Amino acid sequence: MNSENTRIWIWLTQAIGYNTSKIKKLCSLYPDITEFYNGGINEWRHSGVLTQNDLDKLSDVSIEIADYIIMRCKELNYQILCIDDDQYPSCLYNIFAPPAVIYISGKLPDVDNRLTIGIVGTRSATRYGLRNSYQIGYSLSKYGVVTISGGALGVDCASHRGSLAADGVTVCVRGCGINSSYLGENASMRRAITARGAVISEYPPDESARNYYFPARNRIIAALSDGVVIIESGAKSGSLITANLALEQGKEVFALLGNNSPQNEGSNKRIKEGSAIPITDFFDILNAFDSLYATNENVDIQDISFDDIEAIPVKGMKKSDNKKIKPAQNKKNKTENSEPKASQKAKPKKLLSVTKSAESNKNKPKPQPIHRDNVDLSDNARVIYEYISAEPVHIDKIALDNNIPVFKVLAAITELEMKRLIEPVQGRRYKLKPEE
Length: 436
What we know:
This protein is an alpha/beta fold and 436 residues long. It has 19 helices and twelve strands. β7, α12 (239-248) and β8 form a beta-alpha-beta unit. α1 (3-16) crosses α5 (52-60).
């Protein structure tokens, strides 16, 4: 890293801003940015890139501000990656407005040569959204995929935590400085990410969060990702901005199938208009990139615990709800000599009665889902609905047995799921859904 170049790129961002295409233009015009800086006001003006307002700001901002930021990064053990560094990701440089500087805590993976999937969605995630975000992050990581997200409440942190649970590599792109106290409830998660992957930002270490930083941050998530998955997105969700940017950058966009609630209005609309590929599990994502990841026959994604999702914070949670999100205590950690409180002594009897009740009902047959009458369906959806039973069946078998192309099967499956007539089972299989 050229320290003088680093000073100048940081100085430029402090003067003319972060999310601007002018940075890339200057990088193209000046292979050595020191030539631009040393040329002074006349060189800056004749570059043809900057407005008079930009020139005034460059004259007003001292290079010493860059020295302070570099000092803070050294204190915090952050790496600084500039747009003209050899290690700067090509996928990031190739977008319309790449950041001049990226601050990194941890180690940024080789995003140009590894399969990377961005996972985005609502901060007000339901349990369904949290579970799927966690499971997709976990399963993709087991297959060696790098996951990218924004570290926000809800879907973002669920996907990060799923990747961490699988000992995978994940990248958190912050809409503030890495050292900012914003979202302190996720601080321990960010520390864990740093040990496995990287927490990054285009903003200096102590920069506070601002509303307009987050839409700008989304262009970086999209750029670092080969594909972006939307999980639970309302009609005006910020995750749709990421999806739009991904489409503009020529990336694949996926959306998790959801019900007709406002929580899924945005993602379901993308599926209906054809701008997002419908998915039900991580296999649907991998199948779109089957030449980019190495399969491992020994990968075990079945042994996954969802206990962690109980501790994932979501937007709108009240302080009184804290007790609902604490992880369950591990009874094995209690010592044999610990004395239960008096109020707890009756609990074993209650548990015993529940156990006996469960034992007595164990052999009773469970009600089986049946096909419903008078359901308005398209022709293909009707055929497939009558074919599917209570036993899970793979989508390829559905297509083969009914002589329907897979892409038409997918459309019919989407229709049936949205009408809550069938439900997915892991491994691209489907079965009838019991009446609710």
